[in-house]
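So, can you check these tokens?
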Amino acid sequence: MNAPGSPPSPAGPRLHCPDCRAPLPAGVRACPRCGLALVGDTARRLWLIDSEIAEIDGRRHRLLGERAVTMRLLRRESLPGRPGTPLPGRAPADGRPGAVRAEAGPRAPLGSAAPGGPAPASAGHGSEPVGEVTRRSAQNVVLGLGGLLVGIAALVFAVWSWSDLGTGARAGVLGATTLAFALLALPLHRRGLRATAETFGAVAAALLCVDALALGLLLSDRISNGPGYSAAALAAVGALTALYPLLVPLRSPRVVAALVAQPVPVLLVAAAPGDGLLPWSLPALAATALADLLLVRLLGGPRGGVPVRTLHVTATVLWGFSLALSAVLVLAVPAAGNAGSWWALAAALLVSGVTGLLFTRRPLPSLPPAGAGPSAVHAVVALLALGAAPLAAGPAHLPVLPRVPGTFWSEAPGTATAAAAGVLGLTGPGAPPLSGAAWLAAVAAAAVLALAATALLRRDLLAHTSALVAPPTLLAVPLLLPLPLAVAVVWALLVGAALVLGTALLPRRGAGRVSAASGSLTVATGVLWSLPDQYTSLAALLLAGAVPLVGLLLFRRADRAGDAPASLYGACLLLWALALAAGTVFLAALTLGGDAARPAWWLLAASTLLAGATALLFGRVRRPFASPAAGTAPGCGRAAARTPAPDTADPRTAFTLFGLLLLPSAPLLAGGGRDPGLAALPGPYAPWTAPASAMLDPAHRVLGLSAPSGTAAALGAALGVLVAGALVVALVLVVDRRWTVTAASLAAPTSLVPLPVLLGLPYAAAVVWTVFVGAALLLGVTLSGRSGLGWVPTATGSATLVLGLLWSLPEYRTTLSAIVLVAAASLVSALLLRRVDSPGAAARTAPLVPGALALLAGGASLAASFTRPGPPEPVAWWLSAAALLCVGAASVASARPHRPGAPRPALGPVPRPALRAAPLTLLGLLLLGAVPLVAGPRSLPALAAASRAYPPGTAPLPALTDPAYSVLGLAPLPGPVAAAAVAGVLVSGLLSVGAVAVLARRWTPHAVALVAPPALAPLPVVAGAPFLLALLWVLAVGSALVVWSALLRDGRTSPLPGLTGLLTLALGLGWALAEEHTVAAALMAAAVVASVAAALARTPVPALGGTAAATALTGAFALALPLALDAPAEYAALAPIALVAAVAAVVPRLRGALVPAAEVPACLWAVLALVVSLGAGARPELVALALALVGVIASATAVRPGRSGFAVVGGLLMFAALWTALAAWDVTVPEAYTAPPAFAALVIGWEWSRRAPAPPSSWAAYGGGLALLFLPTVVLVLTGDGMAWRVPAVLVLGVAVTVWGLAGRLRAPLALGGLVLVATSARAFGPPLWDLARLAPNWVPFAVVGLLLLAVGARYEASLARLRSLGRLVSGMR
């Protein structure tokens, strides 16, 4: 593979296939396993790539070894007192540690020798082996483990073995051990065993602690102050360990001294006499952290013998622990015993805040120079601690944090004017004993100290601290002084608003964020404080909603100047979301809480207006986190584009849409919330249960709503709704005038629909007014023709129409009238659309929406009218038909592409338009065709497919003269009602056809074909004519339509009349099923009509349909006539077979599509005849005759071109006929009848194979004969009949056929012979295999499965082992 066209050379190591890794023999040109080519240019290129990869891997291994050796050398040179020798080719750049000057000239490649230097060391020559851990690490681990074990032994000895020795012996052992370890460190250090010496020094320090513990145990009965003794012992241990490095210059003793000194201040506080000093241990802990940090700053940078890093770590840990404990006490502890406890907590927070600020001052000596900037985490935590100090200085119950009060909208009088502390639950047994002035002074002192500490340490964070300290300091004023709740709420909201809005004046961004966050929380606190009183809550919601609106205006003004703070935007967004959430809760409370006063609803409506305006303003201002191009450029204002073009990728679009959807709810709230604006379904009446007199009752009474009592109150409520709607439009006009039309479309329903209910107008007037408002919106969309502004009016108009339909449900006639009005709106909109040039998508959709609503509502009402009790009402039928007529006409009119006055081409002939039905045209035609069905009675005969009074063939002959409705099982109609029904059906049919003729003249024939059957067929039945006359009338109508379809020369029009005519004939045949002789006559008449239509047809579709119908109806007549003459079913089934034979004889003379039109019904009748014959089954010989006749017909059909598949069907049918005849004759030896034709078939196949130019398949030549020869015998052998002679015969024949197939290499004889031998052997020489399987124990399957899984697992493990061996082999290669 290393030369073009040559195989791999046999010299060198043995090669492997690059693809499957199989070993390759010498001189091979392709892989024996996978067939990969190993010669040629491409193979040579692959060999070069693999060689280069192997070379790179070898270089990588060498460089890794060299790196380990160099790293050990560099560590050895970095020890103190041993100046390092720079590596060849490198020197310090500027005296700084770690600085390296780049070498001059080009850089040598990795692994190559440096210029003028020695060659790099190789990993395989003279390099030390690389271990998992370094020697120093191993050494330290061993030493540390030894020291730990010694310390544990000493502790065990001191605690558990102390009593086994005397006092002197015990003291001597511990003292001698401690002194020995302390003194042995000196010679070890002098000999250079520094790590060992450090270990001995650490053990000596630990033994000192054990000595102190032992002394405490010895003097336990004499020591009365445990914390004091512990503090003294730790102080003594710390002093000794701090002085020990003067004897032996070690590092670890002073680290131990720094650690053991940390608990001393806390222990001193605990040991101090007096009660109530335990809370002051927390300030002592914080002061310890502060002292550690001060020592760090005083001691300077890290150096030997000075534990600067240890003090820094202890300061950080103690500071964090004290802060966490303080936060838990402030937020989680509900009460305190006395004021001193909380003041101790405030002191701890102040000290922790000072410590955090000191952490942020740079440089800290214990930190590397890389961390030069101030720590943001320390600064944030320190500011939070200082901000919580005034909070901790106040009472434990002081709710200056956002906490939910215990009561919500208390009904107690005077809640808003009561003292805030009492309403919020600050008085009682848990209240603090001091006066409010004392607590207020403590809070102010904590705030002043926090500000002073910030000004002293970090003056740049003074604004941040002020923003954090202001809320807990100022909010405590109305609570600690007996001020009313309303004053406290307003004060909190004003403080929060000042903090939020003051963000625009702060120059620093960080201060702005802090001010915005604290102000937002303060506003939330004010809202929560207002919860005990309803009006206070709603007023607080109004004030809280005004803050983000004013803040956005300030942000917009600052944005024009180019200095807009992002924190102000975020605070406004947060407060706006808070106002929305609170408004939602208040709305639910007002809705579920029963009757509420209208001022409460007006306040909520005003808050909704503010929230909606704020959302619109969010959509106008530039987002501070987006690029300037994404927002509105400064100065654009109202001069921006007036056509709204929302960008879905811009989040501001979501704010605009939300604001537009939120503002229209204000009129609903101004009208009383759920009374009536939010009521979609009527309350007291179920659908269609209200009397007719309810149409004149007040609307609020029928709808189950409450209305204002008195004319003045009603006018005031209506005026409030109108004013709210006008304010919605005005706000949108001021904030973003581009959406004025959209806002008007959204506000119109909510402002206009409630007016009739509020004014107490009649129920019918309210429904009509609602439908009129919705229709006006949709008509406005149609007239405007603009798609950009039309979708919103379309949606609101549709929703208003739905509301009107829902309101109309209580009374039946009102519902139908509303449906008619909605349908009429659809028709008017469609007619207006024809006058609009180039209408937009919304304008084209406007007529469809009310049409769809009317169609759905009308369908539901029509379905419900069938179960509605009461006498028939022609007026209700006519209303339903009128609605359907309007919807159908609107659908046809909407599908017209041009208006009537559209100009025609000036030159040339007018082209004939293609008759392509649009979906709306088809829908309109179908709806108009169904109008006569709706205009008639609900038991319309056109819907009766068969007689409901008589099962098929059971009606007596005199019933033909009875009224048609009695035979069909329909309810009779009184004389006037019947006349009205007949008139309604005829007039509705004429109107439907007239509508199509006016709106779309070219579809008039289709309309006639659709309308004629439902308009004409039911007339005799509704009029009470005899059944025979009604049947003849229906057949005549269907025949006329079929013949008309045949006579039409327009191929685009002729199919539909034929289809409706055939359906009408089918309806007549369904009616005729009631009497057996009548059905035969009707089938004969229908067959004659279909034959005449097929003969007279001038277009292809009627010809094909007539041929198929004539064949099917003739077959039905042939089956029905013998049955009508009381012939058995087996004999009657032979008549359709005769028809099938006649069709098979005539079909070869037909051409084109007429062939399948005749053959398909004939085939179906053949199948049906066999099913009837088999179903009767009384005479098996007749069944065999039917099977044989159909088989002969199928075999005769197979000789025609393209019908060869029928040969198989014919053979199967004749085979089935043979077996049926044998069964009928009780033949026990079927081989006498099956063997001769089987051998004949084999001879024919042999002759076919011998003489055919291309020998056929053995399955085609011998398969059928062999199956006929073996199948009967094998089946009888398997069933156990005649095994004495059949088994040997089958075995002999099977062996012979198998040998024949093997000798001639024929698949069919070989496969069938083997299958016969296996099947026969399984039955003849033992029980079935399943019986043997059932005898096995239950564990056998599980054992087999287990062994199989073990085998698979072993195989898989062996494969993995081979892969690992291969990987090791490859990785070991050079």
Remarks:
- The chain has 53 helices and no strands.
- The two ends are 19 Å apart (CA to CA).
